[in-house]
Amino acid sequence: MLATLRGDLQAARDRDPAARSAWEIALCYPGVHAIWAHRASHALWEGGYPFAARVTAALARALTGVDIHPAATLGAGLFIDHATGVVIGETAEVGEDVTLYQGVTLGGTSLEHGKRHPTVGDRVTIGAGAKVLGPVTIGDDSRIGANAVVVKAVPPNSVVVGVPGQVIARSRPRSAGAPPDLEDTLMPDLLGTSLQSLLRRVDQLETALDGSAADHRDARPSEAGVWSGEDFSI
What we know:
Elements: H1 2-15, H2 22-28, H3 30-46, H4 50-64, E1 67-68, E2 73-74, E3 79-80, E4 87-88, E5 93-94, E6 99-100, E7 105-107, E8 119-120, E9 125-126, E10 131-133, E11 137-138, E12 143-144, E13 149-150, E14 158-161, E15 166-169, H5 190-210
Parallel strand pairs: 1-4, 2-5, 3-6, 4-7, 5-8, 6-9, 7-10, 8-11, 9-12, 10-13, 12-14
Antiparallel strand pairs: 14-15
């Protein structure tokens, strides 16, 4: 147990550049407090003391803003950054070295008993506000973008963006020893890419019909990716 607690501290130190010492993390990080409280409540649950486990979980929720059912299974090296608003359901399973940001939900979509929450693989990163719903599996080394809503299985080494979440295979798969995948600026813009592809095809069709493409500057962003405000009522 002590080794697991030290591992939780080290995970926070490795993945938060604001962390300055183990004492600071132990005393000031609600995500770490929530994980530690869950480890205690889970031990009570597994030991046959469900009421005491639920009371412990309820106290942890009140103190940290993180709601983790005591029956959920959390792997070693989990880091919950900022923590507020994180919800992890009863039958959720979280692998090793996973990173969750604020507002993440690992929730269910059924009132039936049995497995109804996600299974998250090792070294997965789930961005702020993302929702993973139902008994779906998130493959190892995957990344869920901020505010994505995932309702179907995600293969290993994938990126998911959008609502509902769209799965994108990585062009450069990550190795098991790679550092955590935290670069939000590299998340793909599926809608923008699709619109640009459609506009190019329209140009090609118009050129084929009359020899000259129409001027679509009013319907396109600049080369810097900025849309003209004259085309919108803002």
